[in-house]
Write a structure and sequence with these properties.
The chain is mostly helical and 514 residues long. The protein has helices spanning 8-13, 31-60, 63-70, 74-77, 79-91, 95-102, 104-123, 128-155, 162-169, 171-190, 195-198, 200-214, 228-251, 257-277, 295-312, 315-323, 328-334, 336-352, 358-379, 386-401, 404-413, 420-453, 456-459, 462-467, 471-476, 478-498, 500-503. The protein is globular. The two termini are 27 Å apart.
């Protein structure tokens, strides 16, 4: 940052049928038969989610090459990441309505196909603007995949065993970051950055075929109207707000028309959305859930943690490539220890949260992540031994694995079954929005830090100017570059640490057996 059968309308609105799910059915022949049906369903959901997660992680190692090939500053090229995650977030609230309007199977397959088409277009992009536009296409399709899958799998579980189901949803979070950077680095070094996007096409085809086979055809049952005013305020408002704030930070002035106007318009639209969502009967996102039990503290924990952690993910490959002189493949390989630590811990913590108080688990995770992240940050330099950096990142990875899924599980436990679709939609959008804000913030902070620390002749050019230097000259300014990264990382560490505050309000008791 998701399984007896339910109609598409039920998936969108929470009504349950005794033997139906949105996507398939579990024969009422006993627990083993039901679990097998859930496992088959989960295999398709995991593969579809893997495709979208893979595309988030695989691109980070290519940013340096994209900046070099397109002669684009980091503040511009980071929109390849931010545009994608913003589009993901923008379309997620449409999922509940779209399930009722189009049916689960049709919607899921349409999203998978659209993602593959977007990947093809991104692979054929000719400049920064076209690549960002095609990444938005990818995001608009990919944003449908995860909330539909999350709703299906959450509805397949009872509250006492929901941690196990959330661990299944964590598989793409393990596999995607593990193979994505390495695969992306190899493709960038051995072929072209274009293959970073084209590689999604065969994965999409497999997911499409499996979805056609395992998902049962369902009849659309629209039972609610689309909150069109909410959609027209939230999506443009977020995009304008982030663009205005990042533009102001990049220009070191928020009073210019190019920064102030989009910031004010975006803020006004977001405020209008919040007011509307708290007053209308069927809002695009039900913000009233924030007042419901542990959902509010869990969402706040998730937002702060994701902004710091996922927002900083684009920095690490750049540090390895720009400061340490690693290839894209090398940068991907150096990320493996942290990803393994995160993924393995996530599988244990997802089950442990069924037995341990969520607050204790999440607080421990946030403390570990902050300690590891802070240790890494203080050691960032031009010649720090890799063993020191990787050990600190592995500790951070353990903390991440103990935080993300337990926090999401704690959020859903206090929500009644009829509100699970609204809750899963909100939980899907929170980390996407937070990571979008975090990525834009980190890129602007890094650009500013580089501008302040590089020699005067290079400071105006930032990453572009560094790319134009010969290898010897880059090594000469490596200490200043490392200092710029270290300064930027401090902000990410602060965001992760702030997640401790809302985590204090998570449930203290163990989940009830059931």
């Amino acid at each position: 940052m998701s399984a007896a059968p339910a109609t598409p309308g039920a998936a969108a609105h929470g009504a349950t049928a005794p033997h139906d799910t949105a996507a398939g059915s579990a024969p009422p022949a006993g627990r083993r038969s039901r679990e097998f049906g859930v496992a088959a369903l989960a295999s398709v959901v995991v593969l579809g989610s893997l495709m979208t997660v893979l595309d988030m992680t695989i691109v980070n190692v290519a940013l340096n090459r994209l900046s070099e090939d397109f002669h684009a500053p980091l503040a511009a090229i980071q929109w390849v990441v931010t545009g994608y995650t913003l589009a993901l977030a923008a379309v997620i609230p449409l999922t509940a309505w779209a399930i009722g309007r189009f049916g689960t199977k049709r919607l899921y397959l349409l999203a998978i196909g659209g993602f593959a088409v977007g990947s093809l277009l991104a692979g054929l992009a000719w400049n920064t603007e076209s690549l960002i536009a095609f990444r938005v296409v990818q995001g608009l399709a990919g944003g449908v995949v995860q909330p539909v899958g999350m709703t299906i799998l959450i509805r397949a579980s009872d509250p006492a065993h929901r941690g196990r189901i959330m661990s299944v949803l964590g598989i793409p979070v393990l596999v995607g970051p593990l193979i994505g950077p390495v695969l992306g680095g190899y493709l960038v070094d051995a072929a072209s950055w274009r293959w970073v996007f084209l590689i999604n096409i065969p994965v999409g085809l497999i997911a499409f075929v499996l979805g056609t086979r395992f998902f049962r055809r369902d009849t659309p049952q629209p039972t609610r109207r689309l909150d069109l005013p909410g959609l027209l305020t939230l999506s443009p408002g977020l995009a304008l707000l982030i663009y205005g704030l990042s533009s102001g930070a990049e220009r070191h002035s928020f009073t210019t028309a190019g920064a102030l106007l989009p910031t004010l318009v975006g803020a006004a639209l977001v405020i209008a959305f919040v007011v509307r969502s708290l007053t209308v009967r069927d809002p695009l996102i039900d913000l009233r859930l924030l007042r419901h039990g542990s959902f509010g503290p869990a969402a706040a924990t998730l937002a702060l943690f994701a902004a710091g952690y996922f927002g900083s993910m684009l920095l690490l490959p750049l540090y390895y490539q720009v400061v340490r002189g690693q290839s894209a493949t090398g940068a991907g390989l150096l990320g493996i220890p942290q990803v393994l630590a995160t993924g393995i811990t996530m599988q244990f913590s997802g089950r442990l949260v069924d037995k341990v108080a969520p607050r204790r688990l999440v607080l421990t995770g946030v403390v570990l992540a902050t300690a590891g992240f802070l240790t890494f940050t203080t050691q960032v330099a031009a010649d720090t031994p890799y063993a020191v950096l990787l050990t600190a990142l592995a500790v951070m990875g353990v903390g991440v694995g103990m935080t993300m899924m337990p926090t999401m599980t704690a959020a859903t436990r206090s929500v009644s079954i009829d509100r699970i679709p609204a809750a899963s939609t909100a939980l899907a959008i929170v980390p996407q929005l937070a990571s979008s804000v975090g990525a834009a913030l980190m890129s602007v902070l890094l650009a500013g830090a580089m501008s302040e620390r590089l020699p005067h002749a290079l400071s105006g050019g930032g990453l572009e100017a560094v790319h134009a230097l010969p290898a010897d000259a880059v090594r000469a300014v490596a200490p200043q570059l490392a200092e710029a990264f270290r300064h930027t990382y401090i902000w990410a560490v602060a965001l992760v640490a702030l997640a401790l505050l809302p985590a204090l309000f998570l449930p203290r008791g163990k989940p009830a057996a059931g």
